[in-house]
Amino acid sequence: MSLSFDGRVVLVTGAGGGLGREYALAFAARGASVVVNDLGADTKGGGKSSAAADKVVEEIRAKGGKAVANYDSVEDGEKLIQSALDAFGRIDIVVNNAGILRDRSFVRTSDLDWDLIQRVHLRGSFLVSRAAWNHMKNQNFGRIIMTASAAGIYGNFGQANYSAAKLGMLGLANTLAIEGRKYNIHCNTIAPIAGSRLTETVMPPDLVASLKPEYVAPLVLWLCHEQCQENGGLFEVGAGWIGKLRWERSQGQILRQKSKPMTPEAVRDQWDEICDFTNATKPTTIQESLASFVNVLSQVESGGEVGANPVAAAASAASDTGINPTMAVGQKLPTSSFSYTHTQCILYALGVGMSTKDPDHLRFLYEGHPDFSCLPTFGVIPSQSSIMDGGLSSVPGLDIDFTRVLHGEQYLELYKPLPTSGELISEATVADVLDKGSGAVILLDVNTYSGKELVCYNQFSLFVVGAGGFGVKRNSDKAKPPLPPPNRAPDAVVIDSTTRDQAALYRLSGDWNPLHIDPSFAAMGGFKKPILHGLCSFGFAGRHVLKQFADNDPSRFKAIKVRFAKPVSPGQSLQTEMWKEGNRIHIQCKVKETGDVVLTGAYGGGLQSELVFAEIGRRIKDLGSELVKKVNAVFGWEITKDGKKAAQWTIDLKNGSGSLHKGPHNEKADVTITISDEDFMEVVKGNLMPQKAFFSGKLKMSGNIMLSQKLEVILKDYAKL
């Protein structure tokens, strides 16, 4: 399918000839409305004319395209953007292409030679991009192209002023790529080689004629298209060739010891090692760069030897596997927004096998039903979008082959029934990275909010085949562990048939992986035919539990954990076996026709209060010091179920930056609170005031009961559902 720019508005600076003209014509030919900017100056920045811009506009209009001319200097960036707004009502794409030359050897470069180049190239690109920024931010879309040069990347005799400005544009672009990422504003840099008024002064005429601008324009158009997710890239392009550049850094050497001076002689003596690019690293972010210095400080403080490598074996292994846990763990993915209506809820319900054949399913399939609800397992969909949108590829230390990523396990907690429409915001963090030998496991924690309220929490466990061997821990206390089912016959069994089109239907909820629809792609993965999404089987099992043990009431569904064991083929029947142990339902799912277990270690349910304490624990990690200042006390909690103690928690908001502990704790509580699981949830939801619960006997306290006044700080402000 050809790339279209229908409805997009593009500003190209310096578009009166050469590359700029080619960009303007190409965008217009594909449906864009184009602002053709050109001051009409000569190559040194002198003079002014409207002829160049007018001629390009005439060319575009003669072919049925839409274009207007602008004759302002790029130093008047606001005027350029206003031209786009006045003519077309918006601005989507900015191509910073305008430029001049004032070549001089360094010693002959005047202040004017230096300043004019910086003003046009670097300052002009800054002013035009800044003028467009808020418009792009508000519409959640923008694409910006910076035009660097080989002179900026490598240097070139007689172009000190030009080289400095061009590399400055790359630095500007890199920062805009970071700041714009969460607003879907992407900024990339090109270093083109093409025949133009500027290059004809430094290249032979026959070479200028061969390096046609139309060999550069296709890259610019792709980088500016909404389908392109490239951000922060640097590309050399010309003559029909495109290459991407990246930085490379030697492993380096540590040249000092604790409490000893570092000398220039030490630098001299290890110069060859400092400059040795064997097993070089390829940092892509400032965080990756700084990580090495942190390791150096740690190694020096621990008495490491002079000449040691700052990232030693870990860096060497990381260069082979593409995984560096030190860099990756704790990194946040770009915030993701998921807007939906009742249509998506119904489509998801159909995708996980619901049907009007079952009257109980109607509350999930008909928006006019008095109890119309969203299936609890729909909670994976908005959180999954934060990963599917390419956010994982932006994480430093996770340079992985995404064709080798398997979905290993899934955990979902619900803090309230999911709304049937609205906008949900998901914030994802790399919780941990584990080395399993044959591969790596990436744990992703995703919190999903409706407004400021936490709606659900997901933990994705992703297995990267062949990426192990980087030498860190195999297990993590941050992982939600699977649990084996009881060694007895199940309490309930539900058998449900999938259809041949089950995967085709489920993928409409947002998982577009061709593995589930394209036979040729499935064959590449070693499957005879497309397989069912693991999260589709997850949805089947979840709704089986919901019906069997919660009477299809989403408010009673609190959590579910599964491990994906084997694939399911669309058309096979799923057999969900369930065991009830207290408030927890153990789950195992099989393919009825083969007996293969496809979901293992699965369970759902548990105390409702566990979800709240889990959220309190997460908030303490983020805001512990603030809470300690406000509360300055240790709270003990005893949660009861059916009159018996079911769980014990300690919230320490007195020591350090705060902590949460399940079970007995050595820190003596200032006050101990006993309350049932059900009443605790009513307090948290704001339906029952703590003081009223105390006087009615639903909440019992021992110790300093005056601290009950602090409960609101903990429960209302930091664990509100």
Automatic annotation (TrEMBL):
Pathway named in the protein's UniProt entry: Lipid metabolism; fatty acid beta-oxidation
Compartments, record wording: Peroxisome
Protein name as it appears in the record: Peroxisomal multifunctional enzyme type 2
Record keywords, A-Z: Fatty acid metabolism, Isomerase, Lipid metabolism, Lyase, NAD, Oxidoreductase, Peroxisome
Presence of the UniProt keyword Oxidoreductase in the record: yes
Gene Ontology BP, a term: fatty acid beta-oxidation
Family: Belongs to the short-chain dehydrogenases/reductases (SDR) family.
Primary localization class, coarse: other
Domain Ketoreductase: 8-182
Entry-linked PANTHER family: DEHYDROGENASES, SHORT CHAIN, SCP2 DOMAIN-CONTAINING PROTEIN
A GO cellular component entry from the record: peroxisome
Molecular function terms, GO-annotated: 3-hydroxyacyl-CoA dehydratase activity; isomerase activity; oxidoreductase activity
